[in-house]
Amino acid sequence: MKITITDVRKRYGDVVALDGPSFEVPSGSTFGVLGTNGAGKTTLFKLLVGHDRPDAGRIEVGGLDVEAAGHRVRERVGYLPEHSGFPPSMTGREVLDVHARIRGLADRRERIDECLALVGLSEAADRAVSGYSNGMARRLGLASVLLSRPPVLVLDEPTAGLDPRGVAAFHRIVERIDRETDATVVISSHVLSEIERLCDEVAILQDGRLRANGPIDDLRRAAGDRVTVVCRPADDRAALLEAVQGYGDATDAGEEIEIACDRADAFDLVAALGETQALVDSFEVHEPGLEAAFHDALAAETDDEEVPA
Ligand SMILES: Nc1ncnc2c1ncn2[C@@H]1O[C@H](COP(=O)(O)OP(=O)(O)OP(=O)(O)O)[C@@H](O)[C@H]1O
Fold it and tell me: Where would you find the membrane-spanning parts of this chain (predicted)?
């Protein structure tokens, strides 16, 4: 089910939370909304699921206007908010039973079992939620969203605060949903690698504005002229930093030094590193990823701001 966002604006007092982004989420895609803190991701999701109204602009889900069609849109969209809580004394199964009853599901028992299995909570289903880890609670939240098989899933920073195992488990579930259903899945995150792993397309927001959007492969290709050379210094890191000056933007990244440079300059840099072997233990050249596209998108904005009106 396609989602269309057109020139959506939202203010909270003096704060402009959304400043007119327009983009489409293709039907059946797994779509990432990427942005730093305060970029407007949660605001956009609240408008998308009808929990709040835009000041201007329009959002359509499968051709239905969210503002005009209210509850008909909410039936189509399963929303996992950034923070959700459950009554701690209830078991996971009881929580899902309440949600299933509210939605009037006919095949309640079977569907609850299916959703528990899908999120890997079958064995923990009859334990009190108070004993669940953060990761289990998030997966229970996802199960509650999946119960009514909504054609659109909106997941707001679903892995925030989870440990690496919890993140990996959540990712596997999203990948399975992507493989096995036609659902359109919209996920927000500020973790680039997560979006890169899970999503086909992305919209990058900053300060409420759309900075870039499209298939991740296209954004990567657009950023393709930049590569990152990562060096592990021998003893004298200051001398190495000095030696790489002029080839690109060098960053002291803990144990390593990263030099972001044009592909054309990378050859000269690698040759120079070869000549200064005493300074370098090892180096690698990294091809551009979504990270390069993200930084390009944000840097383009900084450049715009530097142009006098
Ligand atoms: N109810 C509100 N009242 C006042 N300001 C708000 C409200 N909700 C959001 N904002 C502001 O709007 C801007 C966008 O916030 P939003 O929560 O949508 O960003 P976000 O991208 O989800 O950020 P995060 O990654 O930190 O969750 C921020 O400056 C935020 O402080």
Answer: none
